[in-house]
Amino acid sequence: MRIGVVLPEITESYLKLARQIGCTDIVTTLRGPAGGEPVWGFRDLLIQRQRIEEAGLTWSVIESLPMPDCIKLGLDGRDEAIERYIASVRNIGAAGIPIMCYNWMAVLPWLRTSYTTRVRGDALATSYKHALMERAPLTWAGQVQEEQLWSALAYFLQAVVPVAQEAGVRLAIHPDDPPVSPIAGIGRILTHPDAFQRVIDLVPSPSSGITFCQGCFAEMGADIPATIERFGRQDRMFFAHFRNVRGTARDFSEAFHDDGDTDMFAAMQAYYRIGFQGPMRPDHVPALEGEPNDRPGYSLWGRFYAIGYMRGLMEAVEKTGY
Ligand SMILES: [Mn+2]
Questions:
Q1: Which of 29, 40, 277, 291 sits CB 3.0–4.6 Å from 88 for a disulfide?
Q2: Does domain 2-320 have CATH number 3.20.20.150?
């Protein structure tokens, strides 16, 4: 099992910290200059990769590359935007970064109704109550039907998956978070485990698979070990977000990894049973006392606590079996 981490920034000091707590893999976002999604240049990627490698770590996942809504909604301009995306995919593959996480949340990304929900010891977590969003005004996109999103996703995959396969990049789709449809008139399609099968089957390829964000699947009410086995046995689970929550899609709160509804030991056993080779990173941790809550879900101490717990679970599973 390879533990990955998102660092606040890629510095020598953070890279060292990552190794000290037992991480092997680095997961980063690629942000672009303001005003448009960029094509990431091969050499910029290579220099960054070498920096991570020389610190003794592997840059295994890009999560995510900016993707404009015209691609997700199938609007004018998408062909040019897909061309730019494809150019980045080629450069990412050439630079030796094997996995790209992406999502199909249009207009409204990752969404919460609170960043200050109290969990154990009054640590601050994010939470979502759909009842509070029922009267949310429509966005600029108006009403968006789910079929429009499915059709745009199929168009995207037909264009990009063959390129990704040739470039040696695996595309791993992340669930909608929260997995509720619609929100503010915008449909959401990755809200049920069967939707991931549909994505895998749209353009079948060893380069098209999923990011198993465990918390989202738990919110969907999925049986976590069974779902890990379902996609793991197809070799389509490329990347995992180890995450625990309390509640369900329409009313949930993030939790400490050892304090939510999911049996995390049983989940870890399932990753071992499928021989999961991909990187796994902790996702959405509470902000602990003494640390600012300026990046809700991504406090550093919370992540470190989660990684220690993951390593403990791994040792327990390795010693007691799966
Ligand atoms: Mn996630």
A1: 40
A2: yes
Tell me the HSE value of 30 on the side-chain side, using a 13 A CA sphere.
29
Comparing CA positions, the residue from 232, 243, 226 lying closest to residue 210 is: 232
Look at the block and give the residue holding tokens 């990049």: 169
Distance from residue 212's CA to the centre of ligand 1 (Å): 8
Distance 241 CA to ligand 1 centre (A): 5
Count of residues in the chain? 322
* pTM exceeds 0.90 for this model: yes
Residue 89 above 90 pLDDT? yes
User: Distance from the CA of 220 to the center of ligand 1, in angstroms?
Assistant: 13
Q: Mention every residue, 6+ apart, whose C-beta is less than 8 A from residue 185.
A: 138, 139, 141, 142, 143, 144
- Does the pLDDT value for residue 32 go beyond 90? no
CA 77 to ligand 1 centroid distance, Å: 28
